Amino acid sequence: VSPGAALSVLIVEGTNARTNASLFLRRALEISTDGRFRVNVRRASTIRPVDLEGTQAVFLNDVQIDGGSAERLRAFVESGGGVLVALGEQGGWPSSAADLLPGTIGPVQDRLQGRGGRLGFLQYAHPIFEVFAGPRSGDFSGARFYRARLLEPSDSAEVIARFDDGSVAMAELRFGRGKVVAWTNTLDDYWNDLMRQPVY
Question: What are the two backbone dihedrals, phi and then psi, of residue 59, each rounded to the nearest 5 degrees?
């Protein structure tokens, strides 16, 4: 991002999304004092061509999109766009565009025993986590995860975070000039308390 330039971000929530489903994400993106992100939020199950005009990144927040929207995202990613898919409870992906997702989506897994699961592996060399690689740069170990979607990563995907039981927390697929990242949890505090940790 060039100094002073705003990165345009689209957040798409499901039509039945919880109230404030993207509150933590939106606040995190908007907290910058130099205007590095311009955030637009839509409640819909479709992505229109106009939604992607001038947009550099798309967050699909617990939403099931249709095949036409997935094909529009395919062209968007091929030309250099970035997509983060937060699977959550209602999140899904059309089978017609399965090759665009970094894995096969499975059922919801409860992790309610004890105090929930934790992140057990983070690839700190990856751009998403490299800012936390240094000493006292952020601690993810305190976050608890009470549910997660199973994700069987594809051969071409890179797993960049795992839970302490070895299951995939985050995986990335490079497609054309862009990337698609799947997060097997929610972006609010419905399934976890990551958003309430200082590292967030």
Answer: -110, 120
Secondary structure (3-state) at 34: coil
Q: Which of 148, 76, 157, 153 is nearest to 118 (CA)?
A: 148
User: Whose CA is closest to 178, among 56, 92, 21?
Assistant: 56
Closest CA to 145 of 99, 196, 101, 180: 196
18's tokens: 């919880």
Work out the widest C-alpha separation in the chain, in whole angstroms: 47
Please state the pTM of the whole predicted model.
0.90
Q: What is the pLDDT of residue 32?
A: 66
Cα 126 to chain centroid distance, Å, stands at 15
Rounded distance, CA 45 to CA 66, Å? 7
Q: Kind of pairing, strands 168-175 and 57-61? A: unpaired
d(CA 34, CA 142): 30
- Return d(Cα 70, Cα 180) in angstroms, integer: 12
Q: What pLDDT, in 10s, does the model give residues 67-88?
A: 999 999 999 999 999 999 999 9
CA distances from 141 to 58, 86, 116, 119, 156 (A): 27, 20, 12, 6, 28
* Number of Cβ within a 10 Å radius of residue 145: 22
pLDDT, tens digit (0-9, with 9 covering 90-100), for 8-59 = 999 999 888 888 889 999 888 887 666 688 899 999 989 999 999 999 999 9
